[in-house]
Specification:
Blueprint: H1 12-20, H2 24-33, H3 43-59, H4 70-78, H5 84-89
């Protein structure tokens, strides 16, 4: 039976999350330092969204995992907490050409 999942296209934010690895504190510090999350968004809420994305990805069957990465899934779950810059970095494909600053 074929999977009904569609691939999640890569984004600059997804790559940024991937670079932090599985260290939640490092990721949150980097997100803040790069002004990718809103100042009024709590670290706890943002990290809960990221953890939920990791958990959902882990629950996928092996056949469905190739269609997305946990980092891109986290990018989608972080959407309510992103700053204007973070939202630009979250745009699939187009954001890959954005400058790092």
């Amino acid at each position: 039976m074929e999977s009904e999942l569609m691939a999640i296209a890569p984004s600059k934010l997804g790559r940024f999350i991937w670079e932090a690895g599985s260290d939640d504190e490092l990721l949150m510090r980097r997100l803040r330092r790069s002004d990718l999350v809103r100042p009024d968004a709590s670290d706890e809420e943002a990290m809960a969204a990221i953890r939920k994305a990791w958990e959902e990805h882990a629950s996928l069957g092996e056949g469905d995992r190739p269609y997305n990465s946990p980092e891109e899934r986290a990018r989608v779950f972080l959407e309510p907490y992103l700053s204007a810059k973070g939202r630009k970095w979250a745009v699939p494909l187009e954001s890959l050409d954005l400058p790092d600053d």
